From TrEMBL:
<feature type="transmembrane region" description="Helical">
    <location>
        <begin position="338"/>
        <end position="359"/>
    </location>
</feature>
<dbReference type="InterPro" id="IPR005828">
    <property type="entry name" value="MFS_sugar_transport-like"/>
</dbReference>
<dbReference type="Pfam" id="PF00083">
    <property type="entry name" value="Sugar_tr"/>
</dbReference>
<dbReference type="GO" id="GO:0005351">
    <property type="term" value="F:carbohydrate:proton symporter activity"/>
</dbReference>
<feature type="transmembrane region" description="Helical">
    <location>
        <begin position="151"/>
        <end position="171"/>
    </location>
</feature>
<keyword id="KW-0472">Membrane</keyword>
<feature type="transmembrane region" description="Helical">
    <location>
        <begin position="6"/>
        <end position="24"/>
    </location>
</feature>
<protein>
    <recommendedName>
        <fullName>Major facilitator superfamily (MFS) profile domain-containing protein</fullName>
    </recommendedName>
</protein>
<dbReference type="GO" id="GO:0016020">
    <property type="term" value="C:membrane"/>
</dbReference>
<feature type="transmembrane region" description="Helical">
    <location>
        <begin position="273"/>
        <end position="293"/>
    </location>
</feature>
<keyword id="KW-0812">Transmembrane</keyword>
<keyword id="KW-1133">Transmembrane helix</keyword>
<feature type="transmembrane region" description="Helical">
    <location>
        <begin position="93"/>
        <end position="114"/>
    </location>
</feature>
<feature type="transmembrane region" description="Helical">
    <location>
        <begin position="385"/>
        <end position="409"/>
    </location>
</feature>
<feature type="transmembrane region" description="Helical">
    <location>
        <begin position="183"/>
        <end position="203"/>
    </location>
</feature>
<feature type="domain" description="Major facilitator superfamily (MFS) profile">
    <location>
        <begin position="9"/>
        <end position="474"/>
    </location>
</feature>
<dbReference type="InterPro" id="IPR005829">
    <property type="entry name" value="Sugar_transporter_CS"/>
</dbReference>
Length: 540
């Protein structure tokens, strides 16, 4: 018997997000340790004044490739996930991702050289790509509109917990002598994937996917279980069921879709919005802070354990500041969350650039401690200000783009394309994650503090882009969002202007509570649902 508690369902499913978090800090906490630097060393070994061996580890470009390999695999995995999910189901796709993660983790744990490490991380990336694309789809299709932001946003919270747990686990293991310092944490990261696979056996399939496969009794049973608390005659269950039925009826008139469908005129704008919310989430520079924070803090004068402990504080901030977004994100709305977040991130990036430029100076040739990417030095009070601004940047991201960038894409698309559309959007995230992971270490070498200027400009551009093109989806059913993009009175091929769309949280909460809008209830507990989108004359 499947479990119908929405928060239990989300808590199990978002472990798939936790896998991404484990991968991030499995590298960021390790790359400064002696065990890692010496085992994967590519430069001549030297000795300090005390006779201690000094290893430089992989070169900046190779380290970028090692870090980026996971994102490269995630890009491919996210694209494949659309086919897997549409054919086998959302739940099965997530389980496949968990099995692939275990395979990749075994290879990473047993790595004998850099190529083997890269192969293992690519396989891990396939898993992360599948789970990061399909967990939000699964949860968004099972959650009511007023709770969708909260429960889908749990994916980001799981990522932050994964980062934090793995960082402290890796930090603890860093005191172990030899290669066990990194092999133990790389092996232990299999445990969440095993729990995810087993946990998904207890959860129901997406009711919208079941409907699309003409499994109507199962669809109604899942809606009753999750939304009706066992009451098949619940007004809200009936409303959701009829809404799904109406949309599927229209979609039967259309052939099965390919990725090309997403670039047709009636889909192009929402595809552009969905892709760019994922691109911007990378171009904020957040994952640079996640992967390479030890480099940044080393340039700010922190060394050894002080560097690792100070780096871990940003992961704690990331976990804590995600909570307000989960609790209140649906009330705030998507647009204000994105706009305010990008504004504050822009401010902190420009402050860091100004501090580095005004008070810093180039590091000795070859970088600090022989690490090329640690190419700039700043000391004293300005260095503390850089660290503080970095923490504030992380807080700004965690409360805004962190959860919202996962919630938003599945809300934009109709059922017939949602699996592939979300997969495509997520693949854009991973493509840019790959590019940034690979190029940031060489960028620190070549343009130094100007990296902060670059990300500040990106944050400025995203603020303007969001204001003019990202519509509000909060409180609307997935079917009602369709009406925004197909508004016959709106801008051709765009729909209702983004700045005119409103937060419908209050209306959605009322419908969820009583099952109908005021004065639309009819006898027998049924509702008259005025279908906004599922008529051929309203969809180009």
């Amino acid at each position: 018997m499947a479990i119908g508690n929405l928060y239990f369902i989300a808590a199990i499913a978002v472990v798939g997000g936790g896998l991404f978090g484990f991968d991030i800090s499995s590298m960021s906490a390790i790359i400064e340790t002696d065990a890692y630097l010496c085992y994967f060393n590519q430069a001549p070994v030297t000795y300090d004044d005390d006779g201690k061996k000094v290893c430089q580890g992989p070169s900046a470009s190779v380290q970028g490739g090692i870090t980026a390999s996971m994102a490269g695999g995630s890009w491919l995995g996210s694209l494949l996930s659309g086919f897997i999910s549409d054919r086998l189901g959302r739940r099965t796709a997530i389980q496949i991702g968990s099995v692939i993660w275990c395979i990749g983790s075994i290879i990473v744990c047993a790595s004998q050289n850099i190529p083997m490490l890269i192969v293992g991380r690519i396989i891990n990336g396939l898993s992360v790509g599948i789970c990061s694309a399909q967990v939000p789809v699964y949860i968004s299709e099972i959650a009511p509109p007023t709770k969708r932001g909260r429960v889908v946003g749990l994916q980001q919270w799981a990522i932050t917990w994964g980062i934090l747990i793995m960082f402290y686990l890796s930090y603890g293991c860093s005191f172990i002598k030899g290669t066990a310092a990194f092999r133990i944490p790389w092996g232990l990261q299999m445990i969440p994937a095993v729990l995810l696979f087993l946990g998904m056996l207890l959860l129901p399939e997406s009711p919208r996917w079941l409907a699309r496969k003409d499994r109507w009794e199962e669809c109604h049973a899942v809606l009753t279980l999750v939304h009706g608390h066992g009451d098949p005659n619940s007004p809200f269950v009936q409303r959701e069921y009829e809404e799904i039925k109406s949309m599927c009826e229209f979609e039967r008139q259309n052939a099965d879709v390919s990725y090309l469908e997403l670039f047709k005129p009636n889909m192009l704008n929402r595809t552009h919005v969905g892709i760019f919310v994922q691109i911007w989430s990378q171009l904020t520079g957040m994952n640079v802070m996640m992967y390479y924070i030890t480099y940044v803090f080393a340039m700010a004068g922190l060394k050894g354990n002080n560097n690792l402990i100070s780096s871990s504080i940003q992961y704690v901030i990331n976990v804590c500041m995600t909570v307000p977004a989960l609790l209140y994100g649906d009330r705030w709305g998507r647009r204000p969350t994105f706009l305010i977040g990008s504004l504050f991130m822009m401010i902190w990036m420009y402050i860091n650039a100004g501090l580095m430029a005004s008070y810093g100076h180039p590091a000795p040739k070859g970088g600090l401690n022989g690490v090329e990417a640690e190419s700039w030095v700043i000391h004293g009070a300005p260095s503390k200000a850089v660290i503080a601004s970095t923490y504030l940047f992380v807080a700004s991201y965690a409360v805004s783009f962190g959860p919202a960038s996962w919630v938003y894409p599945p809300e934009l698309f109709p059922l017939r394309v949602r699996g592939k559309a979300t997969a495509l959007c997520t693949s854009a995230n991973w493509a840019f994650n790959f590019a940034l992971s690979y190029f940031v270490p060489p960028a620190f070498v070549n343009i130094q503090w100007k990296v902060y200027i670059l990300f500040g400009v990106f944050c400025t551009a995203m603020f303007l882009h969001i204001f003019f093109f990202f519509p509000e989806t909060t409180g609307k059913t997935l079917e009602e969002v369709e009406a925004i993009f197909t508004d016959p009175n709106g801008i051709p091929y765009i729909g209702t202007p983004a700045w005119k769309t409103k937060n419908e949280y209050s209306r959605g909460a009322h419908i969820e509570e009583v099952g109908y809008e005021d004065d639309k209830k009819v006898a027998g507990g049924q509702t008259i649902h005025q279908e906004v989108t599922a008529t051929p004359d309203k969809i180009a």
